[in-house]
Amino acid sequence: MTAVAEHPTTPGPDEPVRPEDSGGRHRVYEGCHRQYDGRHQAIAGPEGLSVWVTAQSSGPVQRRGRYLPESVKHPARMLPAIAAHAVHAYTQPGDLVLDPMCGIGTTLVEAVHAGRDAIGVEYESRWSDIADANVTHAQHQGATGRGAVIRGDSTRILSLVPAALAGQVALVVTSPPYGPTVHGLVRPGADGVAKFDNAYNDGTDRGNLAYRDLTGLADGFAQILAGCYTLLRPGGVVVVTARPWRKHGQLVDLPSAVIGAGIRAGLTPVDRCVALLAAVRGGHLVARPSFFQLQQVRRACTAGTPMHLIAHEDVLVFAKTQKSASSAEPKCSRCESGCPEGTSCHADTGVQGNSGRRSG
Questions:
Q1: Using CA atoms, how far apart are residues 354 and 335, in angstroms rounded to an integer?
Q2: Distance between terminal CA atoms of the chain?
Q3: What's the pLDDT tens digit per position in 69-89?
Q4: Which of 36, 98, 119, 144 has the most neighbouring CB atoms within 10 Å?
Q5: CA 353 distance to own-chain centroid
Q6: pLDDT tier at 188 (50, 70, 90 boundaries)?
Q7: Cβ atoms 273, 40 nearer than 8 A
Q8: Cα–Cα distance between 190 and 172 in angstroms, integer?
Q9: CA quadruple 119, 123, 125, 126: dihedral sign
């Protein structure tokens, strides 16, 4: 991971700076990001940065006026700057962007504001309605891209999305759920702090991936990515944000599970970056934790368990690559064929390839 670049002076609140080109990996199109730069103030640095400076302003500030107020009720919202960075880095105006688990439509809103077209799938009708309203709100604000939201189960995405879109998607941006309950929102009261808007649906509909264990979540996510593979154009990119979380004190390695799901879906991992959830001020990170993150860290430290605040999400980048016939199967150096692992060489058995025929 490349270090975050320091500036001679600390960037001011109104100082727009832009995400950098990274040698073709994050393609930056001149003149395309002025709106992104002004809103999210990503810090400039050397080429090849793998750190996305996406929390120079807090989530509420990033959403203020750009999203409808009820959007805050979703239990796990992606930072708009993360979606915006991915859209600007991996697409050009007019491209099609997809989010198969779109929630309140963050990916779609940032895409249409950037002049891209976008389509999202959302399992829960409550959030799909808000996502649709957020896209309409963006268009009323002057967004030039077109957006659409489909209500349905994205593990069957190919039955939901029009068949004509197969091979047309330039970029997929999404994030898997972190279990059925998350931090949500808090309200102080006479009896202490009350938590609300912290769960997917009411707990009765277990069709949401959030209610599966890690293995079930990874399997379902692999199904979603396999459908996305069909919808992607050749060379299309998938960006997934994920981070480990603790369950009963044990760290759950969600990023590794996502990488495995992507590979099973036929995608090729091409990059692993960091999207900061902390601001950069004078070369230092300024954490933006939730109330419950602070509480958990304080309790752990009091109990003698070292723990730090979460300062970033992993950004896992995959691509739809074309595999040539010659590279699809490893060649044996002796018989120039594909010898199955753990068996004798075909030169010894007289078998050509995997057909079971004997050589004449």
A1: 12
A2: 55
A3: 999 887 778 999 999 999 999
A4: 98
A5: 40
A6: low
A7: no
A8: 45
A9: negative
DSSP character for 337? S
Distance of alpha carbon 264 from alpha carbon 219, whole angstroms: 9
For residue 327, give both structure tokens.
């590279």
What is the pLDDT, as a whole number, of residue 113?
98
Closest CA to 256 of 244, 265, 271, 239: 244
For residue 19, give the nearest of 240, 310, 5 by alpha carbon: 5
Q: How far is CA 204 from the centre of its chain?
A: 27
- Exposed/middle/buried for residue 180 (C-beta within 10 Å: 0-12, 13-18, 19+): middle
Asked if 314 contacts 272 with a C-beta cutoff of 8 angstroms, the reply is yes
Residue 209: alpha-carbon gap to chain centroid? 16
- How far apart, in whole angstroms, are the C-alpha atoms of residue 78 and residue 39? 16
What is the pLDDT at residue 189? 57
Does residue 22 have a pLDDT over 80?
no
Please give the structure tokens belonging to residue 231: 């919808």
The answer to whether the beta carbons of residues 172 and 157 sit under 8 Å apart is no
Query: pLDDT by residue (tens digit) across 198-236?
Result: 455 555 665 566 667 888 889 999 999 999 999 999 999
Cβ 158 vs Cβ 230: under 8 Å: yes
